[in-house]
Amino acid sequence: MPGQASTFTSDLAVVYLARHAEGKGPVTNFIESFERHPPGIAHDCVVVRKGFPPGESTLDKVLKRAFPHLISVSDDGFDINAYAKAAAQLPHTRVVFLNTFSEITSDNWLRKLHSAFADPAVGIAGATGSYESLLSSMKHVQKGWWLFQNEGIPKPAGLRRLFRAIRTRLPKRLATRVVATAISYFAVRSSRHDRTLDDKFEAYWANEIGPGGALARLNDMAPFPNPHIRTNAFMIERQVFLDVLPESIETKNDSYLFESGPDGLTQRILQRGLKIVVVGADGRVYGMEEWAESGTFRLGGQRNLLVKDNQTRAFQNMNAAGQRTFTRMTWGDDQGTISGRL
């Protein structure tokens, strides 16, 4: 790796994952935000070049403006695999991991994240957290689709095409918008469906997630509320991160499980007796039970985000109905009640 340990000047590293396949746009957006917002604390800058071609590319020229230390990995695997390879090579005490789509929004952002560790009981500090369960969310979506197919909800012109679109492969950003609209429709209309269909849907759902079912993998997920730190932007002690990594992350489902599963990153930190916290642009450190009041991920106007990403931008671009639905999916119908139960 260009830039050996002797050239590092801090015990804190900012590690940015630049995936070549995502193109120049996300990387340029990140670098511009990084240069626009002073970090407020000393650190070393390390970029993980994921899937870059041999030689110096156009993206390398953009990255070198701010990130002198380079680690190159293949495009195989997922973000966490790349984070793990970087953590194994670095000498730093603490690291901040940022994914390709990250965009810094606040001055002194790094100092604010680092301030969370003034409490020695903190094990991980993220820019965003969530209570969402993929198991519960998928059941919500599947029920809307199933009721639609079984005459359980009205079918205005064009809605059938919308639901069919959910089942097809769409570009990620478009799929997010389509799913948001579909879930929104179910959220509004579900109270009007024939309740005798509920038991039939439960039987259908049990088959879908049962052994051999199309969605059996979801049985590994905890139901809502499922608090976890999102791995788009977070700070952690490097050795702790290495210690809590699973033996392998080979599939997309493995990466989901690492982020939000019952034996994933958050749960392994909690099992160590450590706290998981979210830090807002206001510099406040929010404990797990306070996240729904943080004004960060899928909350209101997301005005308190320390770091944006593609998911927070997708939420920002939804209509009001879509935002309400995704807020409920992420934080529950009664945010205060859910928070009080954690």
User: Mind telling me the C-alpha Rg?
Assistant: 21 Å
Biggest sheet: strands, sense, closure?
Answer: 8 strands, mixed
The number of helical runs is 14
| SSE pattern | EHEHEHEEHEEHHHHEEHHHEEEHHH
| Low-confidence region ranges | none
Task: Explain briefly what this protein structure is.
It contains 14 helices and 12 strands. With 342 residues, the chain is of the alpha/beta class. The strands form 3 sheets. An 8-stranded mixed sheet has the order 3-2-1-4-9-6-10-11, sandwiched between helices. A two-stranded antiparallel sheet has the order 5-12. It has a two-stranded antiparallel ribbon with strand order 7-8.
Write the layout of secondary structure elements.
Elements: E1 12-19, H1 24-36, E2 44-50, H2 58-63, E3 69-73, H3 79-89, E4 94-98, E5 103-104, H4 109-115, E6 122-126, E7 129-130, H5 134-149, H6 159-166, H7 172-189, H8 197-209, E8 228-229, E9 233-237, H9 238-244, H10 252-260, H11 265-271, E10 275-279, E11 285-287, E12 307-308, H12 310-316, H13 320-331, H14 335-341
Parallel strand pairs: 1-2, 1-4, 2-3, 6-10
Antiparallel strand pairs: 4-9, 5-12, 6-9, 7-8, 10-11
Helix pairs in contact: 5-7, 6-7, 7-13
